[in-house]
Structures are given as C-alpha cells and as structure tokens.
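cron nightly-structures :: item 1 of 1
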Amino acid sequence: MAPFELAQPTDLAEAISLLDADETRPLSGGTALMLMMKAGVLRPKRLVSLRNLRLDRIEANGSLRIGAMATLRSLEKSPAVREGWPVITRTLRTLSNVRVRNVATVGGALAHADPHMDLPPLLCALGARVTLRGKAGERTLPVEDLYAGYLETTLKQGELITTVEIPSVQNRRAAYLKCTTRSADDWPAVGVAVVLGDEDRIFVSAATDRPTRIAGESAVAGLKIEGDLHGSVEYKKQLLRVYVKRAIDEARGARR
C-alpha cells in the first residue's frame, strides 16, 4: 500500500475543507476503501477520517434519520428500526458478516457505489433521501439520484453524505431478496428490493451498474444486464425473472 497522510478533523467544515483537494478520500468505516488501496486500485495521498464528526445518530420520529457514520451493526440492532422498518433489519442480517457490519457505515455503503451492495436498492425502494454537505452548502436528493454508474456517484469534490432520511413504512409492504453464488452473506449476483403500497417501487441491483427501478416482472427483459464473476448476462437475466417475482410475493406477505 502506498503511503498516505491521515487527517482527523473534529468538525464538518474542517473535513469538507480538507477534502477539497486532489488525491484525497474520506475514510468512514474503510472496509471497501482499504481493500481497494491494498489492491492498488486507489492511491490517495490523503485520507480524511470522519470518525470524530458525530454523525452516527439514529432517530425515529415519524421518519427514520440515520447519521452517515452510523455503523450497519448499530442500524441492525436498533429497536426503533426493528419496530418501524423491519425490512432493514432483515436485510442487514444477510449483509456480509458481523465483523464487517461492526465497522462499515451507512454513508460509506452508499458512497462506495458498488452495485453489489445490499442497502442502496432497498433504500431506493423505501423512498429514502440523502443529505449532502459541501463547500457550496447543503443539498438533498433521492438515494437513486446519488448514482451515475459503476462505482460512480453524483457527489461533488469535497462533498460528504451527512444523513439519510427514510419515510415511514406505514401500511406498505417491503422485502429484499438476493441470490448469491456462494454463502448467503456474500455479494449478490442479483438483488431485488420491493415496496408495495399506493405506489409500488421495485429496484434491482448487482445485475445492473447501479440500483435501477423497474415497472414490474415484465420490465426485466428491457434491462441492460451486466455480467461479472457472479454470473453471465443470461444467467443474471434468468435470476432476475425468478427473484423479482419471489420478492413481490414475499413483500405481499411481509409485515412491513
């Protein structure tokens, strides 16, 4: 791994200022970033740690507000999430392993923009919105608008995810299913998130280069499928035909 400077700001303004430079990366949980640095895919000269920014609160008051530095494990163990958004709890139990969930953060899972991540398609289906802060100020957008392609986001230089807000599930029914080619907690070959209600929302991932909304089972045929080590284009297309139907059926029978 190439040498780098580690900055540890204590407030958000300082972090944004430090990030407004070339060859600089934010460091949240580091579970993906460190692997990419060890592989030589990324060679930043400076890492800006976000650990001291106090962005780890989880608050439920009608909607669910999650600080970007909240760990996946804290979200999984939250009684408020389990009561009001149980589909998130169910999903996190099959996301990687406990060691990773203890360290990985919500903001990092979104900003990494790997289409094989489990949380982004589910948050998209739930209608979540993400708040970003940068040198130009603050802006909020739907989670699906955060993605531009494979490992690409619409984040501007120096911009950070600060919070994610998820509306109440209320009477909607939700499910997330994934198919893995190895262990149940592995990267998915395909992932499908379904939320049924006044407006049905179905998002697929892993088979596409970003979380992608579809209109229903018949829409799979028109998708641009991405083949990779987890499966060929034709294999993933067939998986999607099966798993979209299964996820819809599971959502219909889900409590929330």
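cron nightly-structures :: done
The domain at 58-166 is CATH 3.30.465.10 (Uridine Diphospho-n-acetylenolpyruvylglucosamine Reductase; domain 3).
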